[in-house]
Design brief:
Number of helices: 1
Largest sheet: 4 strands, antiparallel
Number of domains: 1
Number of strands: 28
CATH class: Mainly Beta
Structural class: mainly beta
CATH topology: Methylamine Dehydrogenase, Chain H
Helix content: under 10%
Shape: globular
């Protein structure tokens, strides 16, 4: 029997060396491959990719820059805005929506021409994150100062109502089947609400995760990845509301993204890192990589058509000057 156990151990060790490397990846393979200097306004927030026109939307305080990802050229801007945070797209209506935190409004624009076509007053204070729910065809703003969310009909641009969240919301996601989830930053919780009835249905603790900010979702398995400001990501089962585990990330996270093809979770952080977590199964996760970017690169966007990551910050320009620009990461 002892001899048999010895053989089993030897075989297992040998298998670790001969099995394909992608079953036990040591890194994501991602690195910074290029940078684009675009200059201009130095403050920024969320990034969004228009997957139809293949353009990157970069939010600043008073405007949104639009970059053609096919050639890296700045092709337009949406200006005269007031405290911009995020941009979302309703492709079926040919419109985009921009959250303005300083004047409690949403700017509506034509996706093709980038021309403004309307302005919606939000009956709340401090709209920050903005999300489009394809299930209800509604745009949701998440209003940090009034601790609620506002629903807007994407077709008519009419405000439908507010959802009382009972906590200060940060980023949110939809499961595209009648459920939405939002980080409550001041409570270290995630709230689940119905985007049709506008009712909060549950709240789940993400402790020991504190100040949850970034959020992304594995739609197939119903798993949330909540990036927190105390240098960890909380992984939560949406079916039970239970915390599966927490894993370490960098300092100052502001964006998470789940790549469903490669089962990778990316967390971009202010300290100039992107942490990569591998999902081996719905209950098994491991940090496999920490990618160096540049200080301040806390938000990002993932291009599903190319598997490239885009992040922005101040970069080294000509004559050792600092210039606003884009970092491109790829395998």
């Amino acid at each position: 029997m002892k001899q048999m156990k010895r053989y089993v151990v030897i075989i297992f060790v040998l298998l670790l060396f001969v099995l394909p490397g992608n079953l036990f990846p040591q890194s994501s393979g991602y690195k910074v491959v290029n940078k684009i200097l675009i200059g201009g306004e130095t403050k920024w927030d969320y990034l969004s990719i228009d997957t139809v026109m293949h353009r990157l939307f970069i939010t600043h305080m008073s405007k949104v820059d639009v970059v053609d990802l096919n050639n890296g050229k700045l092709v337009g801007e949406i200006s005269n805005l007031n405290g911009v945070h995020g941009v979302v797209f309703a492709y079926e209506y040919g419109k985009g929506f921009i959250s303005n935190g300083r004047d409690n409004s949403v700017t509506v624009f034509n996706l093709k021409t980038l021309k403004k076509i309307g302005n919606i007053k939000v009956p709340a204070k401090g709209p920050d994150a903005i999300v489009y729910d394809s299930f209800t065809k509604r745009v949701f703003t998440f209003n940090g100062d009034s601790k609620n969310a506002t629903a807007i009909d994407a077709k008519t641009d009419k405000v439908i109502g507010n959802i009382d969240l009972g906590g200060s919301p940060e980023f949110a996601v939809s499961n595209n089947h009648g459920k939405m989830f939002v980080n409550l930053e001041d409570q270290s919780m995630i709230a689940e609400f119905d985007p049709k009835t506008l009712k909060t249905e549950a709240k789940w603790s993400v402790a020991p995760c504190k100040s949850p900010s970034a959020l992304t979702i594995d739609l197939k398995n119903g798993i949330l990845f909540s990036g927190c400001r105390n240098k960890m990501t909380a992984i939560v089962d949406t079916k039970t509301g239970k915390l599966i585990t927490t894993l370490p990330i960098g300092t100052g996270v502001d964006a998470n993204y789940f790549d469903p093809v490669n089962k990778l979770i990316f967390s971009s952080c202010w300290d100039g890192t992107i942490t990569v977590i591998k999902e081996y199964s719905p209950t098994n996760f491991k940090v496999i990589d920490t990618i160096s970017t540049e200080k301040g690169a806390r938000t990002m966007a993932f291009d599903k058509s190319t598997d490239k990551i885009y992040t922005v910050t101040m970069l080294q320009g000509k004559n050792n000057s600092k210039e606003f620009g884009i970092l491109i990461l790829a395998k």
